Amino acid sequence: MAPTARPSRTEDVPLRLGEGRISGVASILLGACAFVAVLCFHFPEYLTTPELRAGYPHALLRDLLVGGMVLAVACGAVSVFHSRSKRLGLTGIGLALAAQWLGGANIEIEHRATPLVTFGFDWLVLALLANTIVFVFVERVWPHDPDQLTLRKEWKLDLLYYAFNHVMISVILLCTTFFSEGLFGWAVHDGVQDAVRSLPVLAQFVLVLFVADFAQYWGHRLMHENRFLWNFHAVHHCPARMDWLAGSRIHFAEVLFTRSTVLLPIFLLGFSEAAINAYVVWVGIQGVLIHSNTGLRVGFLEYVFTTPHYHHWHHAADPEAIDKNYAANLPVLDMLFGTYHAGARDRWPATYGVVGKPLPHGFVSQHLYPFIAKPARPAEENVRSAAHRAATPSAEAPLAAR
Fold first, then answer.
1. Residue 270 needs a FRET pair 20 to 30 A away by CA distance; which of 69, 151, 287, 402 works?
2. What's the mean pLDDT when you consider all of the chain?
């Protein structure tokens, strides 16, 4: 077995009250968000999402920015006072002061023409703050694995994936819109779209959830069963531990593929804006929740909606679960098409990760991996490999999944 690398000061080290590390991490998070927010005020046409920018309550955002900078300094001061190492606290204070030095909440916004490509730093800040507050709380209060740490190994890599895929939202929208409208605009039928829009919003929401998940199911299954596509999707499966941030480890090419696949039926059927917005909110929460390290159970609803327990089995390296539970939202699709893992309700996976040769570490190397790696084994050979690994665990079990 290869020697285990020593964890950094913020990886696989428990966060305990009174040591100054919790306040230090909070200070850096708030300071970094404040710094990025100030840049968004300076360059809104380049660094903010046009679809969100139009509805921003600017007075409220300025107040939140001031509050964030004050909290960053306060948390940093607590960290400096309690911690032996002053690095975390001083970094958070420095980011907050840099944000204030750049103008803070007093920047006058200049309205300029929006370029073709923008970067969603505003979306990153809002989503990161909301998800951190909600899901760190959920994972600490109702954990599946209470021994797993908030700042577990490779959290920095997953945070980088999270940031990149949020910042690139404009590019994602451009590509997916071209795929649906540019390539399939000829298939739009006004009568079909009028009939869909005439439905109540709730009925439209249920329908959009089904057709989008149907498209995503088959796209997801194809990535498992196609030799070439699996090398892209393997990036998403390589984390050895599951939590709300691990679900962000997705190759950018897969992001484009999945979003395009899901958007196409939504575009063709012409759902109302209210139904689409409800769907976007649902999948935004659901997509993070199902990867999270939470043991929350919802009884019979686990047959209706995908849950963390259900999706954890999809990420399992256990032989019985290889290439099962593809549905992102509706388990009925797995039941219909023979990929439902029915025997998993009373327990959780023993291991996570990719069966076989481990993937390289690092953001760039993982993005290059699909283009330089040999075509991976198809799904049925993966199952046999997993069964063989289970029979000889000491020799075959992937190190990352132990």
1. 287
2. 88
Across the range 186-200, mean pLDDT stands at 96
Q: What is the pLDDT of residues 221-272, one digit of tens each?
A: 999 999 899 999 999 999 999 999 999 999 999 999 999 999 999 999 999 9
Q: What are the phi and psi torsion angles at 344 (to 5°)?
A: -105, 5
- From CA 214, how far away is CA 261, in angstroms rounded? 10
Q: Are 242 and 293 in contact (CB under 8 A)?
A: yes
What is the C-alpha to C-alpha distance for residues 115 and 100, in angstroms, rounded to an integer? 27
Q: Is the pLDDT of residue 36 over 60?
A: yes
- Least reliable range by pLDDT among 87-101, 289-303, 318-332, 377-391: 377-391
Instruction: Name the one residue in this structure whose structure tokens are 């920047």.
Output: 107
| Residue located via tokens 């895929």 | 165
Q: Residue 345: count other Cβ atoms within 10 Å of its Cβ.
A: 12
Beta strands in 63-161 (DSSP E): none
**Count of alpha carbons within 13 Å of 229, Cβ hemisphere only?**
15
**What does the DSSP assignment read for 177-205?**
HIIIIIHHGGG--HHHHHHHHTS-HHHHH
Q: Which of 229-234's residues contact partners 24+ apart within 8 Å by CB, and which partners?
A: 229/257, 230/376, 230/378, 231/369, 231/370, 231/373, 231/375, 231/376, 232/257, 232/370, 234/354, 234/359, 234/369, 234/370, 234/376
- Across residues 276-300, what is the average pLDDT? 94
At 375, give phi and psi (nearest 5°): -55, 135
